[in-house]
Amino acid sequence: MFTQLEDLCRRLVRNHYGPIVEKVVALLLEEGRLSLGRIISQTGMEPTSARQALAVLIQHSHVTHAQGKEGARMMTFYSINLRNILRLQRAGLYLALAEERMGAMGLSVFRAIMINGCMSVSGVRDVLGYKKFGTADKQKFSIAVAKLVRERFITAITATDTVTKVDRFMQAEAKEIEKLTTAPTPKELVNIRRRISDKEDEEYTSNIVVGMKRQMTDVSTGGAPKVMIGPNGQPIVIGNGFEAGQQDQDADEDLVDDKQCFQIYHERLDVFLRNKRIVNYFAEKYNDEASVVLKAILRLTEPRTKTCKDKVSESIAAQQIVQNISSDAQLDQAVDMSGDPYFKENGTDSGSSTAARKATLGKMAFALLDVLRRDGSGIINKVDERGAGQYRVNFERAAILLRDECLDSLVLNKFSSTHVRVVRTLRDKQKLDEKLVSQAAMLPLARSRELLHELTLAGFADTVEIPRTADRNPSRMVYLWHVSPQKQVSAALRGALQGISNIMQRADQETLARAALVAKSQRADVVAGTTHLTPGEQASLQVLGKLKQQIDVCVIRLDTMLLLLHDMVPGSTAL
Question: CB within 8 A of 313, min separation 6: which ones?
């Protein structure tokens, strides 16, 4: 664990939950898994305060717990979840996603769960004042909750969610071993672990949405009209307002279980943020029209993509991609089709007919798909030639490409464009000696040697020693230079974590310097009107507000760097 990571986690917890909870988190960060008794004894806190602090952390999925033996007794041990703590600074991006996709009511529900932690639907109703809602608002609330659950912005809490993956694996392995009459052989142990791993993968790939229940709705009996959630998340009125052909006589209505508790699904939200970065990459490389087609592809992959650990998406038909492009998308000038004989013969029908508009949109969409498929990044792949073709998104390649771009921008800001040229040369050519580096990067030998040493000191380059003789004499060794993605990411993460911590410390110092003024501005009489504040005090508060806004922007930018370097890369190790 990085020292900068521990300091940042403590600051985040202190800013969000206060110093009492921070004391428990600091101990868990330093000591690792601990029981409640050890936490109380080492922190010197009252047992009630320690339990309440742990309850708050478990409520927000920052702490996991598992039972284990300590001597002759069975104890509950608590451990910290670093990734979820770091996601506290990503709350603004998550709220923006919820507002964009779920609307105002969905944002209210999402914010209530984010602030209060694990909550049931009935608890959300109490927080939002559901009893005061009108009929239309109550219907909007039901639709918003169902859509949040279906699109996995929030996920149901199960008994295993508060237990780490390692603990779940160990518990399942112990249960399987107990079924055996004798001690397991190595082959049996391997088979047990394989079955457990296969079961974990099966549960991960399952499309069953926990927390939803099916209810048969008989629309033949009339009665008051009811609102049902359709497959696209839109409300369908059934009952007295039922239209023929809109639904069968017996319709299955999706309802959210009011007794089920839900929490924010952070991994799923990171998928949406990753997809936005991929869309922006192609928008900058080509044009906005190409990003429209890519956005349609990624929208089709989202239902089966739960976390960023998925390396590739499922194949999608080209016709399905074209049908999911918005009809008002302006793709007429996206690709120069003057060289296409079919397109030149038929041209772009500028008539007002909808069929002509759809035909032109389809031609341009297929042309853009071909451009994306031929792109050197290798993110969009054509996997089947039947019909119009089947396409697949390589998320692993996209994550590596965006990570390398982020690292190159760091090298550019820290050093110069010449250093970036050397790094890219080593990344493309793998291991090279100094002479080959100077030739490939078109630099003098002395200059390339100087740049390589600067990059090595910063952690962006490394060497490997190849001895020519058995005595491994340094004078008779060949030194090859190369770049190690793991070391580059480690160096970049240390800088990003330290930068976020420094920025948050600056915000605390600015607030502390104006503590008396901030306390005065929060008084009830001052909140009612600013007449109690002098012009100088009002100007000072405005300066503090602008400074905090700039600090928040800097934190979001550095947190985006953490997303690119670590969170969205499949198979990335724990921090």
Answer: 301, 304, 305, 392, 393, 395
Q: What is the SS3 string spanning 498-520?
A: HHHHHHHHHHHHHHHHCHHHHHH
In this predicted model, what pLDDT tens digit does every residue of 360-402 receive, in sequence order? 777 888 888 888 888 888 899 888 877 778 889 999 999 999 9
* Tokens describing residue 146: 């169902």
Q: Which amino acid is at 342?
A: Y
Summarised one tens digit per residue, pLDDT across range 140-190 is 998 999 999 988 899 988 877 777 778 888 888 888 888 888 888 888 888
Crossing angle (nearest 10°) for helices 3-17 and 19-31: 160
Q: Per the structure block, which two tokens stand in for 421?
A: 């040229």
Tell me whether residue 104 is exposed, middle or buried, using C-beta atoms within 10 angstroms of its C-beta: 0 to 12, 13 to 18, 19 or more. exposed
Which distant-in-sequence residues (6+ apart) come within 8 Å of 236 by Cβ?
A: 227, 228, 229, 230, 246, 247
pTM: 0.82
- Alpha-carbon torsion 108, 110, 113, 114, what sign? negative
Question: At a CB cut-off of 8 Å and minimum separation 6, what does 462 contact?
Answer: 456, 481, 482, 483, 484, 487
Q: CB of 518 within 8 A of CB of 511?
A: yes
